């Protein structure tokens, strides 16, 4: 096993970094709610998802603070000290935070798949991401159980390792495929409508923010996966940080789409792209011909002598 960071040190670093990102996510949550209620038109589904993400992130932050206080203050004089406490992965706080993480991951990935469906307007496109999402959800619910049952508090045992590795691998694949399909669809629509657009707007900033969000989330998942495979305790740091990262990626995409001045003009094209493509094919099949108009002029002179 590679050189490891002590568990008490990892827990302190993880809680501090998570707190910083959590504060940033709260600010973005406020911006999301404001953007959702822009011009008194509240998008209730988006507001509900934003609130759920905030609730889960807040609950995870609270559990981390309680766990940190228990390990460093309440049970610091117990046998083995703080390191032994944090190594005990059967602690209720550890199991609770892992299940909160599982629900947050399921919700975040589900939103990305839904966005992909809305843009493509096809169930077939999301079959593979949905299968991966279901598999990742099952692994997310099973992995914490096996982790809590690991002998000697070793989370890197064979059975636990298999479930956690499968969880991060499936989640990474789900995010990359769904975000890739989403960005590709918006990009292709942009290419099709750009020659006939009457305004100077573009949807490329939306593509960029979707890609940025996917890269941020995927980088965190890949880091966790590498650290876990290497049996490095640094994975606990990134694992706690990923909670607010999921919220931030959701908020940043929604705010960018909503505050885009040309969004109102483009979103109908995105959501009804199939209809627009059919209309464009019809125009190409039946091109408009010049229309000749003949005007007859008749003049009546009603003059008196």
What does this structure look like?
With 305 residues, this protein is mostly helical. It is built from ten helices and no strands. α1 (7-36) runs antiparallel to α2, α1 (7-36) runs parallel beside α8 and α5 runs antiparallel to α6 (158-193). The chain is globular. The termini are far apart.
What helical percentage do the residues reach? over 70%
Tally of extended strands? 0
- Poorly predicted spans: 261-280, 291-296
Oligomeric status of the shown chains? single chain
Radius of gyration: 27 Å
Q: Which geometry do the CA atoms define? A: globular
As a percent range, the share of strand residues is: under 5%
* Average pLDDT: 79
Distance between the termini: 119 Å
DSSP helix count?
10
Task: Characterize the main sheet.
Answer: none
One letter per element, helices H and strands E, the order comes to HHHHHHHHHH
Helix and strand composition category? mainly alpha
Features:
mainly alpha
Map the helices and strands:
Elements: H1 7-36, H2 44-74, H3 81-87, H4 92-120, H5 127-148, H6 158-193, H7 204-229, H8 234-259, H9 263-271, H10 273-285
Helix pairs in contact: 1-2, 1-8, 2-3, 2-4, 2-8, 4-5, 4-6, 4-8, 5-6, 6-7, 7-8
Short structural summary:
It is built from ten helices and no strands. With 305 residues, the protein is mainly alpha-helical.
